């Protein structure tokens, strides 16, 4: 096997909206204090558009309308913050989405990992068996040693490794379901 057998996106990575928005928020380019900004940004970035010009116009229109309604009479006071954020979301779209080429994160997945694309589960999904019946495991600990997990204030640590615990209580469904089936990137 070669690296590229599994890791097919060494360049030209098209990240999902949630990662792009998180990075811009962390860098301070998207104002995290704007009400509902992450959900709204991911919504406009996830939408399908016919071409780039239409996309950019619609993104600007939808975000401005949303915040004009949210801020009401105070919109003029908030307009500079809104416009800076709108400009950043437009920039994200311009650099990561190419409608004419039908290029976006969900069409050309980054198969390094398994959160928003099949990635590792292409082989580690429990579906491949050798002639003698051995199945490639989907056990998280075959590739990962989880040494720390949990919510802030009650983080569990063990350098020998911990059993994965999903951050949201979904019972045991995570054992049989692939991460990307819920974590779609938008």
What does this molecule look like?
- This protein is mainly α and 186 residues long.
- The chain has 2 domains: 17-101, no CATH class; 119-181, no CATH class.
- It contains 5 helices and 2 strands, in the order H-H-H-H-H-E-E.
- The protein has helices spanning 3-6, 17-26, 37-46, 52-71, 75-96, and strands at residues 146-149, 156-162.
- A two-stranded antiparallel sheet has the order 1-2.
- Helix 3 (37-46) runs antiparallel to helix 4 (52-71) and helix 4 runs antiparallel to helix 5.
- The protein is globular.
- The chain starts with a helix and ends in a 24-residue tail after the last strand.
List the helices and strands and how they pair.
Elements: H1 3-6, H2 17-26, H3 37-46, H4 52-71, H5 75-96, E1 146-149, E2 156-162
Antiparallel strand pairs: 1-2
Number of helices: 5
If you compute it from the alpha carbons, what radius of gyration comes out, rounded to the nearest whole angstrom?
20 Å
Into which percent range does the helicity of residues fall? 25-40%
Order of helices and strands: HHHHHEE
- Alpha-carbon distance between the two ends: 32 Å
